[in-house]
Amino acid sequence: MKPIATAASAAGFLLLALTACSSPNSGQPAPASSNPPASSSNAASDVPKVPAPLDVAKYEQNPCSVLTPAQATQTFNAVRSRQIAGNVAPVCNWNDSANSSLAIGLLPGQGGLATVYQNRSSTGYFEPAPSIDGYPAVFTNVLDNRADGGCQVAVGVRDDEAFTSSALLFKQSPSYGDPCSVALNAAKAALATIKAGA
């Protein structure tokens, strides 16, 4: 059970960061900034726009539907899935036979990629990712565990909403050395599902 709990915690890193910074009354302090106006302005000008906003409401409370069983098997060799509580909305967690984990969840009401860009200085890593069928994406997480089989990508589906795809792989996984490819491939599959169902 411990590996699954660890994976769930890793999937929540960015959710925690977004909640803490975008909801000052949440009880968690936002990271301090020595020059907020300049940082906010620079971050706002850097944020890529979502070219064709998607209706993702039906996936916000049912994130396990963003991957079909075939997609989950193809992208991750998933053998089971379960919905877990997230800090913002539910998250779907898939596991393979060795308990490596893939988690996908939407972030409604959190400001989309603009919030991700605004908080980039308080993250463990922040790197623009290839756009997915024209939808902007960025690799980022509160902690940098990429050398230990972990990676997360955030994808903008509207200017005010994004979803995250997070991989946490154990050493037995053939993709352990490149967890970002797993997170990105799963995000591509999820976006295809969302576009088809929008």
Overview of this protein structure:
This protein has a single domain, classed as 3-Layer(aba) Sandwich (Protein Transport Mog1p, Chain A), CATH 3.40.1000. It starts with a helix and ends with a helix. The longest helix has 19 residues, at 179-197. It is an alpha+beta fold and 198 residues long. The protein is built from seven helices and seven strands, in the order αααααβββαββββα. The protein has a seven-stranded antiparallel β-sheet with strand order 1-2-3-7-6-5-4, sandwiched between helices. The radius of gyration is 16 Å and the shape is globular. 35% of the residues lie in helices and 24% in strands. β2 and β3 form a beta hairpin.
The overall strand count is: 7
For the CA atoms, what is the radius of gyration? 16 Å
Q: What structural class do the secondary elements suggest?
A: alpha+beta
Under CATH, the topology can be stated as: Protein Transport Mog1p, Chain A
Which segments are poorly predicted (pLDDT under 50) over 5 or more consecutive residues? 1-41
Largest sheet, in brief, is: 7 strands, antiparallel
β-strand percent reads 15-25%
Kindly report the spatial arrangement of strands forming the biggest sheet: 1-2-3-7-6-5-4
Any idea how many domains? 1
Helix % is 25-40%
> Which CATH class is shown?
Alpha Beta
